[in-house]
Write a structure and sequence with these properties.
Layout (H helix, E strand, L loop, with lengths): L2 H9 L3 E4 L2 E4 L11 H13 L6 E10 L9 E10 L3 E10 L2 E12 L22 H9 L4 H6 L5 E5 L14 E8 L11 H11 L21 E5 L1 E6 L9 E11 L2 E10 L4 E13 L14
Antiparallel strand pairs: 1-2, 2-4, 3-6, 3-10, 4-5, 5-6, 7-8, 8-11, 9-13, 10-13, 11-12, 12-13
């Protein structure tokens, strides 16, 4: 297991400070805000701790309300909305300095069998034939500031893009991309395997690359200094069992961008072709006009 993955698993072990109240921390980072996938996954772990093991999360839907401060802990308050015959519902609010920064609802279900169908897995080269995105990113790192590089770090997750994106020299592309991913190291195996942890790590990873899909048709990237990007909401649905330390194909597309927002969809497929999870996110993609120098004789606005 790599140090980065070990750190991720550590921050997913929340401190229980009272009934339905948990505290999470952020690893040391040069980022000025908490990574959205971290808050999403930590909130999931808080809710999972209040639900019997026989019921697994099948959906989570969330809104990002304020930027999280990585320098202080995050409090997660769980509301036990309902424990029904088949489904369990939880609501989690994450806060800092007495203000909500994140709100999410989660639904759990006992295992059931029923009708079954799915879309076919896209035909893509296997991960063994692709290069690590980290290598590609490191090649570009010398051309951008250290702060920018770390802001998009994904070391706990190994990624291999089928269609690598050149963030420094973006071109007009169709709004879709495919990325193989897996945790950088093996999680615990055997009878005591925590399937909820695999779900949380995948939820963390699902926030990578997804929002940038809507930028592809516009020949711009996350390195554009005029771009103000931010996750507005995020949702994930789990359909089948999987291991996040085994290769999964993340197929993403963006059906629409408007109003300075981009809608992005993602599907996770296992190596054997099963659609194991789906995700949707709307992100802010506001472009600020270039500011021209103000003449000494120009009146203020």
């Amino acid at each position: 297991m790599t140090e980065a993955l070990d750190t991720l698993l550590l921050i997913l072990k929340l401190e229980k400070i009272d009934e339905c109240l948990y505290r999470g921390v952020t690893p040391k980072t040069p980022n000025q805000r908490v990574f959205g996938g971290q808050v999403f996954a930590q909130a999931m772990r808080a809710a999972q701790d209040t639900v019997v093991a026989e019921r697994a999360i099948h959906s989570q839907q969330a809104y990002f309300l304020r930027p999280g401060d990585p320098l202080i802990p995050i409090l997660y308050a769980v509301d036990k909305i309902r424990d029904g015959g088949s489904f369990t519902t939880r609501r989690v609010v994450a806060s800092q300095r007495g203000k909500a920064i994140f709100s999410t609802s989660l639904s759990f279900q006992k295992r059931e069998v029923g009708l079954n169908h799915q879309l076919d897995m896209p035909i893509c080269p296997p991960p063994e034939e692709l290069s690590d995105d980290q290598v590609h990113r490191d090649q570009q790192a010398s051309q951008v500031t250290k702060k920018t590089v770390h802001r998009h770090d994904f070391k706990p997750i190994e990624m291999r893009s089928v269609e690598p994106v050149d963030h420094l020299n973006p071109i007009v592309r169709a709004p879709q991309q495919h990325v193989w991913l897996r945790a950088k190291g093996q999680l615990e195996r055997g009878a005591n395997t925590d399937s909820g942890l695999h779900q949380a790590v995948l939820a963390y990873a699902s926030d990578y690359n997804l929002m940038s899909t809507a930028l592809l048709p516009h020949a711009t990237s996350i390195f554009n200094q005029q771009l103000q990007p931010a996750s507005l909401d995020h949702a994930i649905w789990f359909h089948d069992d999987f291991r996040v330390d085994e290769w999964l194909l993340y197929a993403m597309d963006s059906p629409r961008a408007s109003g300075s927002r981009g809608l992005n969809r993602g599907s996770f497929f296992s190596r054997d072709g099963r659609l194991v999870a789906s995700t949707i996110q709307e992100g802010l993609m506001r472009i600020h006009p270039t500011q021209k120098p103000t003449s000494p004789n120009t009146p203020p606005h």
